[in-house]
TrEMBL record:
Alphabetic keyword roster: DNA-binding
Protein known as: CerR family C-terminal domain-containing protein
GO molecular function: DNA binding
Annotated ranges, domain HTH tetR-type: 9-69
DNA-binding region, residues: 32-51
Length: 211
């Protein structure tokens, strides 16, 4: 069987999209190859042919949608140390929220990552090494710059975890947010509003500590 590049790309895209939705809903263990193939409208042998096995497909789904998120909303401005640390923090927070909440590209990706945090697989290990770890290190560097002479490892970790906790609350608690906070949809404008609020709250706390 000879692979055609164009058809392979199309088939792979359909499988990745279908697999992402099903993995997000059911998790790795409960998602079946047959169900994914049926949703993608491909032969049941397609996953082995293009990805090797279900676990390899799962890891590829994580990488694929992570790449889309990071390419569309890169941390480049936050990484540039010539920019003011306050602006870098605002940009970092906005990127984190867009990576996990903005639903235009992949409405299930936030759910997918939430499930991965609760039921970790090999995929989250690779993602931590490749993306999450470097992003946390970036936040550490921004918080350190904001703390100035008051910076120490413990304080940097505490403020950084607080910032990330505020960001991930919206990812991990969608039902609570809809019911009690009256936020029914997370549009781009709503996400920017949330980012500004987290930024202001966090920056004021850091500035209060340094004064």
């Amino acid at each position: 069987m000879e692979k055609n590049t164009d058809s392979k790309s199309n088939v792979e895209q359909r499988i990745l999209k279908a697999a992402g939705k099903i993995f997000a809903k059911k998790g790795f263990k409960n998602a079946s190859v047959r169900e994914i193939c049926k949703s993608a409208e491909v032969n049941t042998a397609a996953i082995n042919y293009y990805f090797g096995n279900k676990e390899s497909l799962y890891i590829e789904v994580v990488k694929h949608w992570k790449n889309i998120a990071f390419e569309k909303y890169p941390f480049d401005f936050a990484e540039d140390e010539s920019n003011p640390p306050e602006d870098r923090l605002r940009y970092f927070i906005k990127c984190v929220l867009l990576h996990t909440l903005y639903e235009i590209e992949s409405p299930w990706f936030g759910t997918f990552m939430s499930r991965e945090s609760i039921e970790p697989t090999k995929a989250i290990q690779e993602l931590t090494e490749d993306s999450i770890g470097p992003a946390i290190d970036l936040l550490f560097s921004i918080v350190k710059a904001l703390l100035g002479k008051n910076a120490n490892d413990e304080t940097i970790r505490l403020y950084s975890s607080s910032i990330l906790g505020q960001c991930t609350f919206y990812q991990y608690s969608p039902h609570i947010i809809k019911k009690h906070f009256e936020i029914s949809t997370l549009s781009l404008a709503e996400i920017e509003k949330i980012a500004d609020n987290i930024y202001s709250f966090s920056l004021n706390a850091i500035k209060g500590f340094t004064d």
